[in-house]
Design brief:
Helix content is 30%, strand content 31%. The protein is an alpha+beta fold and 271 residues long.
Length: 271
């Protein structure tokens, strides 16, 4: 112990410098930084038996995102390709960073399923939807409710709901400021919660956004292999094109590298 103390005394300035450098690099600031991204070949992210070897490729375009530290923040001031974004523009005042990350992950999962369903529908191939759950992924700051992000919605006023349209139909029959009872599953516990109906541009809403978590069975089988940090819904269009292209007799790429971005909903509408 005495020897260790001696070493620390002899090297205290060096050790303090190391600690200071670590703190400067590790302490996160209230900003995000959007950085230059790149391309992801969809073929590397989706396992599906194809009718042929594609001559070209379908690629997702993406940008990177960093939580700002002092060095990255300073660097971004001098590089026009780096954009500084306030945390408040990414995370709402009534949620945490973990809530925002959960939303992005759920949007990615929903995007992969939508891409699969749209492609198989265009191919006239049957898809078995084994389960369909609805999770809250966003709560507006104007919402009057004790609902939480990650809650699974089960019932509205004791009536079972299975899709967003069920909820919209029940709400349409009520008045603004009416309170509805919502049965949810929170941390594997069934809980009764409430929400008031509010007006949003002339439409009756609860002030929440819901994402689907679907389990499906297909022939051929489709498996998605995205990393946990690869999130968001914007790859839906390119994924659906790749799945569709893998099952037809003509190669739509014609040997070209096709790059794109855009969401896709279950009806095939591109955002």
């Amino acid at each position: 112990m005495k020897k260790i103390k001696t070493i620390i005394k002899q090297n205290k300035y060096f050790l303090l410098t190391i600690i200071a450098v670590l703190l400067i690099n590790l302490i996160e600031l209230p900003f995000y930084i959007n950085t230059p991204g790149g391309l992801i070949n969809v073929e590397k992210k989706i396992d599906i038996t194809s009718n042929y070897d594609t001559a070209g490729s379908f690629n997702l375009a993406y940008v990177g995102e960093l939580k700002a530290t002092l060095p990255t923040l300073i660097y971004s001031l001098f590089d026009k390709n780096y954009d500084i974004i306030k945390t408040s523009d990414v995370v709402e005042s009534n949620e945490t960073i973990q809530d925002a990350s959960y939303r992005s992950s759920m949007l990615m999962k929903e995007a992969t399923t939508n891409a699969l369903l749209v492609a198989f529908n265009a191919l006239n191939i049957n898809v078995s939807i084994d389960s369909q759950k609805m999770y809250i992924t966003y709560i507006d700051t104007k919402a009057e409710t004790n609902l939480k992000i990650k809650d699974e919605i089960l019932k509205i006023d004791n009536r079972s709901v299975f899709k967003k349209e069920d909820i919209e139909e029940l709400i349409s029959k009520k008045n603004i400021n009416d309170e509805v009872m919502i049965t949810v599953k929170e941390n594997n516990k069934i809980i009764e919660k409430t929400a008031k109906i509010i007006d949003y541009s002339g439409k009756k809403v609860l002030g929440i956004i819901i994402s689907y978590d679907r389990e499906v069975t297909t022939v051929p089988k489709v498996a998605f292999k995205f990393k946990s940090n690869e999130t968001g819904p914007s790859g839906g269009l390119m994924m659906s094109l790749y799945i569709y292209n893998s099952q037809i007799d003509e190669d739509l790429t014609t040997g070209k590298k096709i790059v794109g971005t855009g969401t896709i909903d279950i009806n095939g509408q591109v955002g």
